[in-house]
Prior knowledge:
Elements lengths: L8 E5 L5 E4 L19 E7 L2 E6 L9 E7 L3 E8 L2 E8 L7 H5 L2 E10 L5 E10 L12 E8 L2 E8 L18 E6 L4 E5 L6 E10 L4 E10 L4 E3 L2 E3 L10 H10 L1 H22 L2 H16 L1 E5 L5 E5 L11 H14 L1 H15 L18 E2 L41 H19 L9 H14 L20 H20 L3 H22 E2 L2 E2 L16 H6 L6 H13 L14 E3 H8 L5 H17 L9 E3 L5 E3 L11 H10 L2
Parallel strand pairs: 16-20
Antiparallel strand pairs: 1-2, 3-4, 3-9, 5-6, 6-7, 7-8, 8-15, 9-14, 10-11, 11-12, 12-15, 13-14, 16-17, 18-19, 21-22, 23-24, 24-25
Pfam families: DUF4964, DUF5127, GtaA_6_Hairpin
Amino acid sequence: MKMERVPSVPLITSDPYFSLWSPADELYSADTCHWTGKVKKMMGYITIDGVKRVFMGRDETCPHLEQTGLEIRPTSSVYRFEGEGIQLEIRFLSPLLLTDMELVSRPCTYVEAAVRSTDGADHGCVLVFTMDEGFCYDGPLKKDMTGGVHRAAGFNAAWMGQIRQTPLGHSGDDVTIDWGYLYMAAQPGGEVTYNNEDDRSTLKVSFELKADTAGTESFFAAAYDDMASVMYFGDVLRGIWTKGGRTILDVIGISIQEHGAAAQKCSLFEDRLMEQAESAIGEDYVRICALAYRQAIAAHKLVEDTQGNVLFLSKECFSNGCIGTVDVSYPSMPLFLLYNTEYVKGMMRPVFKFARMPVWKFDFAPHDVGRYPYASGQVYGVKEEYGYREPHEGLVFPMYYNYPKGEDIYSLDMQMPVEECGDMLIMAAAVSIMDGNTGFVEAEMDLLEKWVSYLLRFGEDPGEQLCTDDFAGHLAHNANLAAKAILGVQAWSILLSMSGRGEEAKWYEKRAKEMSESWTKRAVQGNHTVLAFGSPESWGLKYNLVWDLLFGSHLFSEDIFAGEVSWYKEKMNKFGMPLDNRQTYTKSDWILWTACLTSDKEEMRELAAPVARYLRETKSRVPFSDWYDSCSGDEISFQNRSVQGGLFMPLLKERLLFTP
């Protein structure tokens, strides 16, 4: 097994709250933590013929078992250790198979252990894993805890949680869950216990394994029952795994029973995905996809509304904590379009719903639908007199969706009108193309028509406003944003054509073509395009142009694509090309989108390689950041974000352009 190096290794990846990472090269070199960096201690020890060694979590009082390997795969992280005559392999498997929505929704991760002899002799091994009470609350202050052990048919489960439960008791970005119950469950051969006799409560699972030359193995499941997942416009919703009245013990039991089948499915899925990534670009791209896969999925919560419609609600991690952000869904969607469009529909439904509420007075699309875990109306750009406060971690915003028509609660200059309209239209067209019909959007055509009208009025040369790269500030005459507007108009033409409104479709296609011709005259500056119209010295990534290729609309010339790729290669820094000429920082998701502007595999490898180098060399020990400095490799901000689903754009391009 090779020894991979990534900034932080995903261990448990269920949702934005039940998330555990190891921010070190060796599993024993650092405390495990939540994606926010808050310590959530999980420890692992092995006693070999009476000799105790730590292999997971930092314990300076105990010698470690030497780590000899680490492999990151799409649904699993596999560690290997050797010493005392044995080899130990630990696999953290989160079975996030996008082809199986119920499985994705389960809040369970498998931890598998296998031992074998390396010296020909038999060795008695005892493995012990513990999880600390900190999993059950936010912040460093100790809480009063309770717990116990369930004895069930086919498994035993230790559990713990706070004595005083306050489901959905806070909202925020840099926060962890403060309610619910943690479980560790194993088959009867493994012993599970709840310990509250020391200063801190812990759960423990242990089992005995014989390390012979053939090897033996076992596993347990770590699970979390959040009791209440999201507040969705007044309705408290739970994960899809609760359908049919299932309890957490039901799902743990099913997970234990189906472990073998789930593990096999995951291995086959991983092999296939990694083969596709290798074929598309190469080994560097395999590394990128393998690390991004679980992160992109587990930055969401998968629930159903009261009518049974799927909702796939993202948390905008370490950017503001918003829930269901449109310009986070837009970059993330390539991964989900590859496997099941229902995930993308689940991103869009909340936005359509809020856009119809009286409080949303604008003729452009919203930015978000609240702050996680409250989908209670957009919070981005709320005026201070309507409840916005800094600092505001933990603050539950007012239920803005209940506000009446006429309430002027949003600052117009803090909106992203062209951005969000273009995003929603392109997403609608992409879903319809993948489905082969417009069934999903038929009921929303009036909203989409209003939004395309906005793009026709204001998108050709956007005024000073924010776009998804809002950290860069307001920008007028944004050429990349104008390209999005043009492709949003083209997306509407596609929807009209697919729904049998051919004549109308032709008119919008003609307008998109006229806008693209105007764009070309104003944007092209020599062998590249400008960041902003009228600023000939400027330049920036034109990642939105990829939809011209995927739609097959031919609004922009091949010369533009070739010129852009050549320019990006010229401007390349050690860890990628900058987002634009203003700063040296970059966005990894957009780099892979721009890599799709060429069909030359070698050029794609050149553009993707610095992102893989960032994973190998960055000093920022955090989950896969999408916003970092292209010279130093240091994270600027943003970690564990769902936008890394955008790194799968090359695979989506292959699916749409090269699959018969």
